[in-house]
Design goal:
By secondary structure, the protein is an all-beta fold. The chain folds into 2 domains: 190 residues, no CATH class; 84 residues, no CATH class. Helices cover 0% and strands 56% of the residues. It contains no helices and 22 strands. Strands 3, 4, 7, 8, 11, 12 and 13 form a 7-stranded antiparallel beta sheet that branches. It has a 4-stranded mixed beta sheet with strand order 9-10-15-14, with no helix packed on it. The termini are far apart.
Length: 286
Amino acid sequence: MKKIAAVFLTMIVLLVSMPALSGETLPVDLSEGTRLVGLLITKADLSVYAGEAGVLLASCVQKDQDPEYVFEIAGGLRLICFLMPDETGDGNRMVSNVDDGFSAVHFDMGEEGRSITMDAEIRFVPGQEDELFFYNPVLLADSGQVFAVPGDFMAVNAAMNPVGSSVGQTIRDERTHRENGAEITDTTAVSVQITTVREPMEIRLLQFSEKHELLKSEAFLPGCVPDQIVPLAETDYLLLETVEKEEGGAPFARREAIGRDTDYLNTLSCRDDGICVSHYHDVLWK
């Protein structure tokens, strides 16, 4: 397995050029001000897409008035979070880009944004052969450019990673400097766990009365459950049943009870590449 030196801790002041996604050449700032702002998870080695500078520059587009950083050539899953000055110049705004395929995403931003922790999970249905997940650090330069550098990888397969097991990596960037006579440490940590799951085949929603009588039963294909679920007025609780594919055996049913004190539920669907997408559904109780 390849090893990453702490790329973000050993940056030197250097200006290099690489082809941008549009074909033009732009300078990429690799100064000491460059900092870690996330991860780009890919199934292929990022070196294939990186230019002579060894980095892949992101395109910045606007989405719903917010900046979004896109790695069109490499694809993959982005987990990005950082602070940038707002339009007024009086404060900061948080920029976050999270792709479908990440679940259980959590951002924790410390006082004045000096420390940022990003935690996320990828739920994956592995095959018999090794599947590689490359953990490519995403960096933000002083110039405002965002780019990814090739990183380490994790190998996952069904034999070595049984259902319910997790493997992952945490990438950290620590910078120490003096401010008003005091020593200050800025820390960014990005952690992504890959959890092995079974492939969901069918989603069933069962509605029960207070006396545990079945009132209504519905079945959906994964990814086709309505965004809003409106139980019957007399429904006391829901039973969310996910029928999952079990290799070499009968289908496995995973069940979860949803009471009236819970106003949402989550379901999964599986992409062709084995990565599962988490879907959020509102439960509108009468």
